[in-house]
What we know:
The chain has helices at about 5-15, 20-45, 50-75, 80-105, 110-115, 120-130, 135-155, 165-190, 195-220, 225-250, 255-260, 260-275, 280-295, and strands at about 135, 305. The protein is an all-alpha fold.
Amino acid sequence: MDRKHLIEILLKLLDKNFPEKIKGYVALLASAFAFSLMTVCVKLLSGRYPVAELVLIRALISLFITRVMLAKAKVSPWGKNKKLLFIRGLLGTSALFCIFEAIAKLPLASATIIQYTYPTFTALAAWLLLKEGIGLRIVFAIAIGWLGIILVVQPDWISSNPIQLPSTYVFIALTGAFFTALAYICVRKLSKKEHPLVIVHYFPLVSVPITIPFIFKQGVLPIGIDWIWLLGIGIFTQLGQLWITQGLSLIKAAQASSINYVQVLFSMFWGIVLFEENPDNWTIIGGLLILIATLISLSKKAKSPIKI
């Protein structure tokens, strides 16, 4: 390594924002792992409990944990921009309904992959609503990630594979991706003035009153080991929300979305190990492209803005 390259590396390390960006990357990767474990818990419970009940239990656990953390931190739970906080909660709840329904009805890897069309929505919405520049490498990362998604779903959607994904649930998964993107934009905007715990707090605060009416008609009393999986939904979702809120406060929305592609790889792994969802060649190639998109998005140069 010559002196010039060594100096460039040292300058990057001396960048005052470098430690914060590293924290953001770690938080987002941890969030993706936590959310992947949440999807495993949902998949294990699918078919035995209505989606609304899973959302409600998740919300109650998250609400309890968040209120305890808010009290410990001596932070008011109500925030400043109550209107936008409520909208964030409503969008998150809508997304969660769609995501849980898709996970219940589709293979775990496929449901996660389809839901991960949201980075494209996020990047475009951040450009339109937040006026964030989209770096050249971020555009490249999103494009590669999108290609990876297409390759993974091609055997079911495009090829003559006899096992077709139900179009209704594919649409539900895509709708969940759209709501997720809008929720992330709200988080990005709120994180500039609101405490991360307040942002997380409004998600279950809105979810509980929305889901309770469904329980009176469809509720099923949990039994046995199912309580562990239900508890896992709440805990892993809570961790995922905390870490993704932290990550979005440190990294631009478009870049953060590209990094979160790694959850697809986690879901593939759980699908293979726990649900015998063996990926074919298209899935493996697509997964590798998604990993490449994640690595590209970690580049510091990815923030160079371009005009679209």
